[in-house]
Design the sequence.
């Protein structure tokens, strides 16, 4: 069942991404020829106006075909005839919808008390936290010079620091207290303070704030992961595509006998993936939305557009590179699942 949920989840992520482009194009009065969910042969087609809609056989993909996006067009409603800022808005709208979807998933998780904030609910005996007098109810607001808003922030920061000596600032009532403490390590070799966080309160402002900061954390994590990939901290072999992610979902759900908890785990993974998808699409690489934004910015700055033919050729080359990388990642995913 969770494999079906995984497929539907991917389809939803792609749908909202393309919906963003579609709605932005319609708002800008750009002619939309087709709105397709999936790739390959069409399973279902409909629409009698200027826009045709289709659902295609492979759920991992989709597109919105706009007039003048990839070819020269004299149509007044073509994308190429729109000002650079309008084109940028159309391109960015897909990523915005992905991040918005991730945020809404986090809102659901927060309402179900599945998101943790660094408000101490338990102090581990004989821990660094206990040794300096950190108490239940204290809110951890800063570790060294880093502000933390979520339990993810705390865990990530502690996994990166190399020094066992740290300062921790907590909010207790209306006061801010700063403690100097000596951190200990957990079983994974990461430093720990020695406390458990709390589920976010079921209050509107708390839920929105917590969901926002969880979304921001996921956005930052995309750039950190890219940096690790470029610098060799993370191996290319650890990169996963849709096949690998479905496999991970299967492993996560198989390891958790409680259906509801497994569902929350999958929703958390979906929130991370959809935000990842949105941010990745804004990278300045040909064929990605970010690559198209670069060309619009070029026109905005230099007051001269790049030829549509040249831009289309560059995006075609970028698409070929992305397809090759996708195939290699898929092959790697299959081997990891088998072996």
Sequence:
């Amino acid at each position: 069942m969770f494999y079906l949920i995984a497929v539907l989840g991917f389809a939803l992520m792609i749908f909202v991404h393309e919906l963003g482009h579609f709605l932005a194009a319609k708002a800008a009065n750009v002619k939309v020829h087709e709105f397709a969910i999936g790739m390959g042969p069409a399973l279902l087609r409909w629409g009698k106006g200027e826009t045709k809609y289709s659902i295609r056989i492979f759920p991992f993909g989709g597109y919105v075909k706009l007039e003048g996006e990839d070819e020269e067009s004299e149509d007044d409603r073509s994308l190429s005839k729109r000002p650079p800022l309008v084109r940028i808005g159309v391109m960015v709208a897909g990523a915005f919808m992905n991040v918005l979807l991730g945020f809404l998933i986090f809102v659901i998780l927060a309402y179900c008390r599945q998101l943790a904030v660094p408000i101490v609910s338990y102090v581990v005996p004989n821990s660094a936290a206990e040794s300096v007098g950190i108490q239940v109810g204290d809110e951890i607001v800063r570790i060294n010079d880093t502000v933390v808003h979520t339990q993810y922030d705390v865990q990530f920061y502690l996994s990166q620091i190399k020094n066992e000596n740290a300062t921790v600032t907590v909010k207790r009532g209306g006061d801010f207290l700063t403690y100097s403490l000596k951190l200990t390590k957990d079983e994974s070799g990461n430093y720990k303070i020695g406390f458990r966080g709390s589920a976010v309160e079921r209050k509107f402002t708390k839920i929105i704030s917590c969901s926002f900061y969880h979304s921001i954390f996921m956005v930052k994590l995309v750039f950190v992961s890219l940096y690790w990939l470029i610098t060799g901290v993370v191996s290319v072999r650890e990169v996963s595509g849709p096949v690998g992610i479905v496999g991970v979902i299967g492993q996560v759900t198989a390891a958790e006998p409680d259906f509801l908890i497994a569902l929350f785990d999958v929703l958390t993974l979906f929130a991370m993936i959809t935000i990842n998808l949105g941010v990745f699409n804004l990278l300045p690489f040909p064929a990605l939305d970010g690559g198209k934004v670069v060309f619009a910015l070029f026109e905005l700055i230099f007051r001269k557009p790049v030829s549509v033919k040249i831009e289309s050729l560059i995006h075609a080359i970028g698409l070929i590179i992305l397809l090759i990388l996708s195939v290699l990642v898929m092959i790697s995913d299959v081997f990891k699942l088998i072996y």
Remarks:
- The chain has two domains: 2-109+271-338, 116-199.
- The chain has a mean pLDDT of 88.
- The CA atoms of residues 162 and 191 lie 8 Å apart.
- Strands lie at 32-46, 52-66, 116-123, 139-143, 146-147, 165-172, 175-182, 184-185, 191-192, 195-199.
